[in-house]
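pls design
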């Protein structure tokens, strides 16, 4: 779990397990050799809007925590920043967000079933949740409690994703798409 402010690229060496910021690596320089690192990625993360490059295991993303706002307000705010509510499609991404940003805060993520009950859609790409992604929900979730839960959140009191009432105000995580 490492945070790199204003870092646009990095090297990951699987032999040492070290992740090295490479802010000065650019297209005019040759790519790193396999001895230097076996993973290279370059993208833009807008630190002027409070975004940071965050990493957990093999998952890296450009993220920022804001709030509190309702789900719709949070979605609109992320879009105004050129971002989207975070997609948490893997356990690694879930842990990246939980350990680096949200901690004990309830937080919106970019997934809802507002258009069709039980058919959850990611804000990032409009894709329907896969069977594996449904496995990220807490036991007994999603449950559409009292017929009023259409937005997905991480609750500080439990492990896993929950469907939740979209009108509640809470923190939210925006994710900046990769831009080279």
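designed seq:
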């Amino acid at each position: 779990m490492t945070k790199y402010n204003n870092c646009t690229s990095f090297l990951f060496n699987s032999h040492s397990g070290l992740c090295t910021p490479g802010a000065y690596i650019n297209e005019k320089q040759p790519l790193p050799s396999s001895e230097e690192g076996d993973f290279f990625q370059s993208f833009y993360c807008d630190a002027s809007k409070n975004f940071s490059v965050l990493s957990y295991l093999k998952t890296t993303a450009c993220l920022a925590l804001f709030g509190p706002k309702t789900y719709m307000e949070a979605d609109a705010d992320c879009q105004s920043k050129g971002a989207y509510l975070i997609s948490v499609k893997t356990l690694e991404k879930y842990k990246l967000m939980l350990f680096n940003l949200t901690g004990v805060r309830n937080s919106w993520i970019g997934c809802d079933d507002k258009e069709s009950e039980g058919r959850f859609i990611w804000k990032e790409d409009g894709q329907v949740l896969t069977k594996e992604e449904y496995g990220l929900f807490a036991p007994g979730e999603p449950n559409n409690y009292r017929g009023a839960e259409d937005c997905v959140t991480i609750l500080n009191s439990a492990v896993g994703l929950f469907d939740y009432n979209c009108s509640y105000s809470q923190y939210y995580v925006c994710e900046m798409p990769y831009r080279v």
